[in-house]
Amino acid sequence: MSELFEAVEALIASASPLPPPAERKRLRQAHGLTLDQVAGALKVRRATVSGWENGKTEPRPPEREAYAHLLKKLAELYPAHSASSGDPDTAAAMPVDGTSATVPAPSGAVPAEERTPSTSPAPDAAAKTASKNPALPPNPVAESRPAATTRPSMTRPGAQKAAPQKSAPQKAAPQKAAATGPTSTEVDPRFENGPLAVVDADRDGQVLAYCVGGLVLDVPAKSLASLVEWTLTEARLGAPRLNGSGKDADPLLVLTASACERYGLPGRLAQEERLAGRIPDSHKVVKQLQRSDWQLTKRGFGPWARIYRPAEGSRRQCVQLCIPSWDALDTRHWDGAAQLPPVELARLLGTYAQRVMTPRGSTAVTGLELMTALHPPTRASEPAADGRRHSEHNPGSLGSRPVDCAPCEAPDGHPLLADLPRFHQRGPAEMLLEEAYDWARPLTDDECLKRYVVGIDVNLAFGAAANGAVVGLACEPVHVKHPTFDPKLPGSWLVDLSHVDLSQVLVAGEWKHLDGDLLPSPFTPKGDQPQGPAWYATPTVAYAVELGYDVAPLEAYVRPTSGRYLDSWYKRLRDAYVATMADLGVPEGLTPEEFLAAMDGYKQRDAEMAVVLSAIKATVKGGIGKLRERPRGGGWRPGRPWPALSRPTWRPDIRAAVISRARVNMHRKMLALAAATGRYPVAILSDCAVYAADGPSPLDVLPHQGGKTVPGSFRLGVLPGMVKHEGTQTTLWAEEVRERHGQDLNLARYIKDGHITATDGGE
Q1: CA nearest 370: which of 231, 238, 213, 243?
Q2: Bigger pLDDT: 118 vs 375
């Protein structure tokens, strides 16, 4: 019987009467309470209470009963008739006991009896998603809206205007906050429905837009052209700029296969269209857009299409389309996201959009676009004598025009190398070759006696290397003969580092004698000792000086205008990575033992957040790689320019500096470990190092001294630059696979599961 009574109590609590949203806000303010105070008392987020007060969400048990009790007590202290008569929202308030009252409708609103509530399976789907791991939040902003929200139908004139826009709208972020973007508790009313929507059509042809947080909007558009128009005028989708001098993010519409068919697009691309990466310009939908004065970018109508009209003043008119069924979401980075139901796909992409930025294409493209969004090329000048402002260069950015690279920084086929003989192979003294590690060596006799080989992997290695990197900005490289090396001057240096002896180096300021034959060279990707002059990025040469050796560059290409261009980029991606790891049950501040336990099966705790994590990592790696994008597609010939060269963000020197720092960081940590413990790596691939050990755990490789790890060496933890367990195999396995596949086999490539596959790029 007790269970029945509890069920009845829960049913009553779920329907506790509440006053209208405006009255909720009035009562809170009348008592001098802040949103944070109410949120703290009810153990919810500030944005949750804000959503209750502006009508976007309704509280659910168990918070609803407590919230209703709070409002009832406040209503006794501050009756509605005592409110200021000048506040139209307050004048429309309903008594707190739930009795009826006449509420004037907003101008242009559709009467309640004429509204058509949107219906969808979103509540069940969202509840199913949340039930995967009750300990984790279903969405970083899910508490700001219920799992599904009934909205007025958009098919009637004025319905969108009837949305509770006037009920305590939150102010847009101030100009100062815009430099780093609004916080999660600040809602720009222009984009109140989030950065994106997944558009889906049912069998009856009804079209729904699934937004972040479970919100569902009815879509009245009958054609793709009208869908774009609706998005820009009524949907309230988009995201505020990440920098005060930048641009707001355009709304993103993710079209399911059924939505594509509903709007006259193919659900899947034909083979010819897939190879071309677009549907033909003669397609009826493209013609339809043109008749409505909409334009497409040069890449046409493909998986990531941009539809726009020329901007009117500062007002952009642009909508981004993402079509998963056309392979817009690369399975290497987005796993099976394209097959998710709309509400779950909206949650996944919405989380990524809010933590990183609204996707602009592949993760690599988005990583590059994020750099520009955080450092726009131009800004508004100070007012002139007539009060007008003009566009000027934004200090700290890469500018609005591409700059030439140095000849040594140019990849093969670059126009700067057009005069080279056709089959000429450039050596280290002609080209800059800063790449990630791919090195391995045979196990020593002592290492063969150990039972295991253990792999440790650096978290977000390229991101950590980008943090603090001083790189050239919007300036051409300056060629200098016989320069004095300056570690603070970014550039490329031709210098002989073959004299650096790894058996005797400075480690943390002290000379150490090590077994140099068991260590890779820090100066080459393959770990080979340099044989003469070669081109290196500044961090590599600076590391040679750090190891205690003099350097005498023969020439250099340096960039006198420099800055820490990637710091804000790294910090945003770091925060996204750490927040997503926390969603997966791996927070900061864990001891090494707790961290290893939390990492056990962490991706299975929330499959969607695991995909978000994969996309964040790919954004870091792809964004750095995109700085030196190579030619793609047919028709290009060596010596001719390719499209990427026209971008200010085509900067092979910045890519080289980041990769150089990542490789040097790895080597510095390996030196510290070797000096303190006598342990040396047996294989390295990019950010993964493999060691022989007596036990299977990373703790058997990374000892603690007085409860602390070896200073300057690897540390277990969730933050970028720290390491996690990549995998463990037996020493017997290592010897067998090398005997079968050759001693050059890199164990780090296969340490995770022991399965020998085709080579890959690591990380």
Answers
A1: 243
A2: 375
